[in-house]
Amino acid sequence: MECYFLCTLKKGSIKIEKILKWISVSVFITCSFALVEFAARNLFPSLLSVFNLLGIDTVLKYDALYFEVYQRSRAFMTESGHYAMFVNAFLPISLYYIYRYKGIAAFLIYFIICSLGYLVSFSAGAFASLAAAFLAAFLFYTIEKHSKKSILLFSTALIFVMIVFYYIKDISFFQGIMEKVLFVNDSGRLWRWQFSLDSFLNADFFQMIFGRGLGFLSYTYSTGSTNWFIEATVETGLLGIITIILILLISIKRILQMKYEFKYFIFIGITAMIIQYNLISDYWYPWIWTTIALSSYFRYLEKKAGEEK
Q: Can you give the three-state secondary structure of 171-211, one letter per residue?
């Protein structure tokens, strides 16, 4: 629904600030709810009665554990990783908006609440995706600015990440996350990827080009591939996966061509989602499509402003 709405924006003149405002509000509400959910599951079980009143019975049935102790938050999503992907998509641009328009005090409060809400998802894939996306954005920023200072900062940030990665790997609390990142605990993903790729390799020529049809993997194996790109290759064929890749590349190019200073924050969001979609196959979530539509609208506003000068 969001994409259909955003695609009609060209008929009007909705300000960028208003769009970013409501994105930041949605992120804040979701992360705040995730914190309440985490407290209810792990610290104050009596609060679960509130979820009953709200009719959120799936929260009570959800038992994904981290470190076999803490129940992971998933806010309004079906899984913790999916919730973390939503935050990856829109938290970077929301932080920009709060800092730019609401001041440092509001930014600090917003950052603390949303970061804590994000962390209780304990989504290793999301954390790694966001870190990689941030480094990629920093690299593009460094290249664009041609600044020795930026190159030094990028190198320092990369070294810092590697040092942190090295030292936290032996801390028991972080072992669950590290095992996921290093695929020591793959949650059955490698097995799913294998039978999905076998389905493609064993297909006939027509099926390789046009795919075996949407829902083939879930119907045949009672589970998906948990990898959007593998799933798209099997179900929509080479024609489908090439189309998807082209759409994503064109969208990233459009974002990087923007003159707006917040383009790198949008880039972080879409890049983190693309990376995390190697671990998730639920392509019907609107977040990546909303980001693509937003980037198209922002580029339209830039061109319109240029023509009016």
A: CHHHHHHHHHHCCCCCCCHHHHHHHHHHHHHCCCHHHHHHC
The amino acid that residue 204 corresponds to is: D
The answer to whether residues 276 and 125 touch, using CB atoms and an 8 Å cutoff, is yes
Average confidence (pLDDT) per 10 residues, the chain, 309 residues: 48 77 95 90 75 61 64 85 94 94 94 94 88 88 74 73 67 56 58 84 90 85 82 93 95 89 92 92 88 88 71
Name, in order, each residue with C-beta under 8 angstroms of 211's C-beta and a sequence gap of 6 or more: 233, 234, 235, 236, 237, 239, 240
pTM of whole model > 0.90? no
